[in-house]
Amino acid sequence: MRFLLVNPHYPISEGPSPPLGLAFLGAVLEAAGVEVKVLDLVIFPYSKELLAAELHAFQPQVIGATAVTMTIDNALQVLKDAKELNPDLLAVMGGPHVTFCAEATMEQFPFIDLIVLGEGEATVVELMQALAHGRKWERVNGIVYRNGSGLVRTPARKELMDVDALPLPARHLLALGRYRALGMAVSMTTSRGCPHKCIFCVGRKMVGAKVRYRNAQKVVDELEYLGSLGFHQINIADDLFTANKKHCLAICEEILRRGLKIKWSSFARVDTVSPEVLQKMRAAGCDSVSFGIETANADILKTIRKGITTEQVLAAVQMCNDAGVQPSASFILGLPGETPATVEETVAFGKKLREMGVIYGFHLLAPFPGTRVREECDRYGLRILTDDWREYHANRAIVETPGVTKAMLDAVAIEWEKNIDIWLGDIAKRIQAGQATDEEAYPLVNLERIVAIYALMMAHAVERLGKWTVNGKALSDEAALAELLERVRGSVDQEPQKLQDALLHAFQKGNIVNKRQGDTIHWQWVDYL
User: Fold this and answer.
1) pLDDT in the model for residue 321
2) What is the pLDDT of residue 61?
3) Among 10, 103, 112, 525, which residue is least crowded by beta carbons within 10 Å?
4) How many domains are there within the chain?
5) Counting Cβ atoms within 10 Å, is residue 339 exposed (0-12), middle (13-18) or buried (19+)?
6) Are 296 and 322 within one domain?
7) Distance between CA 387 and CA 392 in Å, rounded?
8) Which residues contact 424 (CB under 8 A, 6 or more apart)?
């Protein structure tokens, strides 16, 4: 049995990391004896021809795509193309978007055969077992499927996964090297579950209200492995990493016991950190903590059931500063009850946090399927402007409140983006004047490298143009790299100097290599680590 997993295209501006959810699915499928391949369209350019080649080479019985709301259209296109190429394929979808609008999605898109609801590892294994026994889907809990008379929803799964019993994510299936070349972080989790009831989030519905924790030794085993791969950052992606003090400290103590020198970051709530926890995290290698603050207005915080106060925010930031941990914060504008005054209140609070050394940013509310803010939008006084899922990227307004319009919210986001452009422009001027230190120049230099490398990957430029013969001519790697630059520069819209810097940096970091054989020069991205 063979299963092709698809990670649909996701904008590089969103800072994607290697798809952890697909790596977990790949791990349980392989453990069940299923052959798995991952087609990652974040880092490989998609075409129907590419898909046809993958299907011909791998010959899967099942193709399954995950998707969040913003990427659902891209995922649907891949599955539609796959069914046109091979109607016998079983086309499966999973992820938060389709979990909460499964029937509506299947009614609109008849090429989807089946949807996996919620946490998917146990379900996909049973799915493959049912496929082997004649597609007896009624035996599989937690799915919606087609039968002759319509759609059938099977009972919900009674128990969630024991996260400690899960195999390590099958990252050998992922082209980790491409993410490393792009300067992205690699992520891992130490728990699942969320007891909180924020009305703009589906985390609790997706992974359950009860938090399930992994054994600290297994967590640090994984952290140590990731630390050997050369990523600039490891992100512990739990929403509640600091919520259980015992769990958090046990992981930190194990890191310190092993003497690991690994840089990592985490997410946290402002009401779950303490000087003791933050100091131990810092000693164990944590250099930054991100807090979801959402708004500075006390009434809106109560409406959205966030359960925090701005006083707790200020205290948490000060504790981070005292411990030597960089605090970051995110806000959401356009929440229920938003008015011009509350927007100003939040913007002013952000500036106050910046004076305390906080790195922060704004998003605009996206009412995702499954959220209370969407399901009860009338109650919350929200007007949802579009169901074009491509617009659900949280960078432009798709809701209005009685007090704020789309234009008002967009103006704040646009002003924020302009300020970032001004900041980057100032860095560029200082670099040109020879006044910027390497540390000061890094944000712009790194961004330009990311843009250049991503352009090369999406143009498939190295693959198409990075192989040639030299007819016995001696050629150093440096000379071959210069020749590669000349060959690829016309394939992407990038300044030659920036392209040269990006390729040289990738070569020095081991992210692109010259696989020379005889008279043939062959440049390749280091995909698999």
Assistant:
1) 98
2) 97
3) 103
4) 3
5) middle
6) yes
7) 8
8) 443, 444, 447
For position 291, what pLDDT does the model report?
96
The values of phi and psi at residue 401, to 5°, are -110, 170
For residues 290 and 184, give the distance between their C-alpha atoms in angstroms, rounded to a whole number.
17
471 and 425 assigned to the same domain: no
Gap between the Cα atoms of 240 and 107, Å rounded: 36
430 and 441 Cβ atoms separated by less than 8 Å: yes
Burial class of residue 108 (count of CB atoms within 10 Å of its CB; 0-12, 13-18, 19+): exposed
- Please give the structure tokens belonging to residue 133: 């026994």
The pLDDT tens digits of the residues spanning 264-273 come to 999 999 999 9
Q: Among 136, 153, 170, give the residue marking a domain's end.
A: 153
- The pLDDT value given to residue 3: 98
Residues 247 and 164 sit within 8 Å (Cβ to Cβ): no
In this structure, the answer to whether residues 222 and 344 fall within a common structural domain is: yes
Name the E strands within 229-270.
234-236, 264-268
Q: How distant, in Å, are the alpha carbons of 123, 328, 447, 459, 499 from that of 212?
A: 18, 26, 37, 42, 45
pLDDT for the residue 161: 86
Task: Give the tens place of pLDDT for each residue, 318-335.
Answer: 999 999 999 999 999 999
Q: What is the pLDDT at residue 323?
A: 98
Is 438 a member of any domain? no
Decide: 7 and 19 in contact? Cβ < 8 Å. yes
pLDDT at 392: 96
Q: Give residue 209's pLDDT.
A: 86
- The residue assigned the tokens 């390749």 is 524
Query: Hey, what's the torsion of the CAs at 18, 24, 25, 29, to 10 degrees?
Result: 130
Q: Give the domain CATH number at 36.
A: 3.40.50.280
- The label of the residue with tokens 């007819």 reads 471
Distance CA 516, CA 320 (A): 49
For 106, the domain range is 2-153
Give the Cα separation of 367 and 69 in Å (integer): 10
CA distance 118 to 142: 8
Single-letter amino acid code for the residue at 139: R
Which backbone phi and psi does 288 adopt, to 5 degrees?
-155, 150
CATH number, domain of 427, equals 3.20.20.70
Q: Same domain, yes or no, for 213 and 362? A: yes
- The amino acid at residue 517 is Q
pLDDT at 76: 98
Which H or E element spans position 419? helix 406-432
CA distance 80 to 264: 39
